[in-house]
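Here comes a specimen:
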Amino acid sequence: MRLKAPLIALALCAAALPAWAQEPAAFAEAKIAAGKAMFESGCHRCHAPNAKDPSYGPALTGIVGRQAGSFEGYEYSEALGGAPFVWTPAALKAWMEDNQHFLPGTKMRHVGITDTAVQDFIIAYLRTL
């Protein structure tokens, strides 16, 4: 029982570290590779990973941290074109889980990626674009 306080302190210190310091490089690379494979098996049907390739939906180059509805040259729905948020990891997770509930009136059909690990892998890959 004496170890409880030091373990809690260690956990709090680890939580305060930036994400790159908490994850070994090999795990981060594997996470990105898994996210790429998941992206290619589902998301790539409609989204290109870069602006050079044509796609049905907007390209996802620079999506993490980008203003919603701002990809140049894509004709967004009224709902997404005027959306007042930035694509943060939390917003992307909510979108992947239930985009129709997150922002009603969008053109994208509901895909429903509810597994948070899958969401994390895809976001890890999207951060590289």
Remarks:
- Confidence is low (pLDDT under 50) at residues 1-13.
- The two ends are 47 Å apart (CA to CA).
- The domain at 25-126 is CATH 1.10.760.10 (Cytochrome Bc1 Complex; Chain D, domain 2).
